[in-house]
Amino acid sequence: MAFRFRRSYRLLKTDEFSSVFSLRQARSNAFFQVYMRPNPLGHPRLGLVVGKKTAKRANRRNYIKRTVREWFRLNQHALGSADYVVRARLSFTRDTRADAVTALSALFAKLARCRASSSS
């Protein structure tokens, strides 16, 4: 199984982000807000939003994005065919990274349960 994060696995265009936001199937916690929309591509795609209000410094915003991308790269095989937009709500550091990753995993698990119950 390949654990790559290629360009085809990313949401790049404004329209792609807008279509995920417009569906408004979302879950959130203190660290993140995750939006989800099914796609016909056969693999998941990820979009990231980390605003300056969340983290003032660019290096902190980049750290948050790297952490989320790494989690997605390692877990994409279990996500199914959907577009996800992860919006950071709270900045975190190396000390609180484990808590943030746990929170992110919990949100994706909630979305998976919600998706499974709505499709059956």
Which secondary structure elements does this structure contain, and how are they paired or packed?
Layout: H1 14-23, E1 25-28, E2 32-38, E3 45-49, H2 58-75, E4 82-88, H3 97-119
Parallel strand pairs: 3-4
Antiparallel strand pairs: 1-2, 2-4
What structural class do helix, strand and pairing data support? Answer: alpha+beta
| CATH architecture classification | 2-Layer Sandwich
Rg is 14 Å
N-end to C-end Cα span:
28 Å
Total count of strands: 4
Instruction: Count helical runs.
Output: 3
What is the arithmetic mean of pLDDT? 89
CATH topology: Ribosomal Protein S5, domain 2
Q: Strand order within the widest sheet?
A: 1-2-4-3
Percent of residues in β-strands: 15-25%
Task: Please report the first level of CATH classification, the CATH class.
Answer: Alpha Beta
Contiguous runs where pLDDT drops below 50 for at least 5 residues: none
The major β-sheet equals: 4 strands, mixed
What pattern of helices and strands is seen along the backbone? HEEEHEH
- The amount of helix comes to 40-55%
**Count of all domains:** 1
Shape summary: globular
Please characterize this protein's 3D structure.
The termini are far apart. A four-stranded mixed β-sheet has the order 1-2-4-3, sandwiched between helices. The longest helix is centred in the C-terminal third of the chain and has 23 residues, at 97-119. The protein has one domain: Ribosomal Protein S5, domain 2 (2-Layer Sandwich). It has 120 residues and is an alpha+beta fold. The chain contains three helices and four strands. Strand 3 (45-49), helix 2 and strand 4 form a beta-alpha-beta unit.
